[in-house]
Structures are given as structure tokens and as C-alpha cells.
Fold this sequence. Notes:
Blueprint: H1 12-56, H2 74-99, H3 104-107, H4 115-141, H5 162-192, H6 197-211, H7 218-235, H8 239-264, H9 270-297, H10 313-321, H11 324-340
Helix pairs in contact: 1-2, 1-5, 1-10, 1-11, 2-5, 4-7, 4-8, 4-9, 5-6, 5-7, 5-8, 6-7, 7-8
Amino acid sequence: MENELNIPQINEEDVLKRQRIFNEKRALRGRCVSTGLLCIICLFTFSLLAIIISGIMTSSYEGTPMLYSDKLSLIPDMLLNAIVSLLGFGVVAVIFCKATKTDFDEILPSKKMSFKRLLGVVAIGFTVCISANYIAQLFSIDLSIFGLETTYEDMLTGSTSILEHITYIVAVSVVPAVTEEFVYRGCIMGRLRKFGDGFALITSALLFGMMHGNFLQAPFAFVVGLATGWAVIYSGSIFPAMIIHGLNNFMSVIADIAYENLSAAVIDTIYVDFIYMGLYLVAFSLALVAVYKFSKIDKNFGKLKAYEGELTFKERIKTFFTSATIIIFLAISMLECLVTLKVID
């Protein structure tokens, strides 16, 4: 006898798909919450250590990784700055990985590559960073057009001796490049790559940019995060990202040292600009060659691995921005940015 009741048929495939979406979203939410928590802990640990150290040294802490004192030599300041970075980022990240049972091989890839390949990846990433730096400098000059002032100022450090130069380079170029890449390209991007390389690249770069706490550095740092993140994904190793980050910081340090010492010697600092431009042209040339070579031998060059799960990119982004700890971290960072623009006293 034919059943006349209109009973909807349950599609088993739809049920399974909804279950997969639910599980993926729950897993992503967990990763986003823990990611935001890591950012908050790093931010407060770094800031607290810097305040404590600045109090001990009777020097002023102005919201940047630089502790400066007129009464003490540069070397103790720089060594303490390195220690703050190691503790605030490095040690916190290690504890975080242990607590979350994160596989270090997953977040710290170390695929071997030839020197030529390494040079090409670094040249591309470094060129992107320098280009972004030029654009950021142009933008910072024009902030007054919008009636905005900033409390952020570039300060010369007073590095005049060889030992001070070396300490300055290690503290500002080497240590932050290792610790910050460990956190943002390792712990953060590495753990989020499960949900798509593009998603992990953009979100980790955004958090890295906002971590700097001012509107002058944030856009530039976001681009640096994209460049170093791409380097990790394409090369299969975190070391090119650390090198790119270190070279980017190194250029600022060398420029600072050069301006400081040339000014003291009454030598026109325009020579520094010429040298800087020359290095940029060399890096840009190497980057063009690398792009050409890579695109010829690798058909997937410039492409990111597609996400194979059920969640759309829009759903993943929504989950990221609606996670409680991400909201808190972005709110704190935005507040810092507004303070540097004197929007909030």
C-alpha cells in the first residue's frame, strides 16, 4: 500500500556535512581563542617586564621596545631589551606550546633548501618589506593633513662604539626576529594553517601588525607579516622568515647608527640615503630574478594551498573576529593606536 503521508526524507549526506561544519567551526573557535590568549599574554608580559626594568633603571618606557636612559650606557639597555623579548615572546610561546600540546615540527618547519632558493625567497620578502617601509614613511609625513598628531617619535640611541653597535644589532635585529617569528609565524600561523594557508597568512599578519600598537607601524608590520608568512609557506621553513625580519630590522638599526655617527662627524647624511637606495635596488633586482626563476620551475608559485574543509573563507573569518580573546586583543591594540595619535589622552 502506497504511503500517502508526506514525510520528509532525511538526507544522510546533509546531516554528515552539517556535523563536519559544526566540528570544524568548534575546532577553529578553539584555535582562535587560544591564539588571542597567546597574543594577550605576550603583550602584557612584554609590557610588564619593560615597565619593571625601566623602573629599575630609572629610564622612561614609552610603549616601544626601546628603553633609553641618559644616565646609563646603551649596552645594559639593549641587553635588557633582548631579555624582555626573549621572556615576553620566546619563553611565553614555549610554555604555550607545551600547555596546548602543540607539535613543534608543525609550527617550526625546517625544510632544507639550496642557497640559491633561500636567497631568492629572502630577496622577494625583503624587497616587499622595504617597499612597504617607503610607503609607510610617505603616509606618516601626511598625517597632519587629517589633523592628527602622533606621540610616536623616532629617537637616536646614542650608539657610538663598536661594542654598542653590536649589542644594538643583536638586541633589535636578531633577537626580535627570532622570538616574534616564533610566535606569529610559528605558534599562530602554524596552528591556523590547518584551516587554510590564506586564512592563516592574513590573520597572523593582522595580529602581528596590531601588536605594534600604533597606526604608523601597524600597516607596515602587516605587510612584513604577509612577506614573512609567505616565505614560510613557500619555502617550507621558518628560517627565511627570521632572516627577512632580521634584515628588515637591521636596515633600520644601521640607518640609525649611520645618522648618529655621521651627524657627530659633521658629514652629510644624504650618503646614507644613497646607500640605502642602492641596497634596495640590489634587493629589488634579485627579487625580480627570483620571481622569474621560481615561476618558470614551479607552476604553483604564488598560489596558496586551498582549504579542503567545509567552512567557507567568510565563515572562517567571521569565526576568527567573533572569538572573545581576539576581540579583546584587537581592542587593546586599537586603544594603543588611538593613544599614539592623541585621539585618547
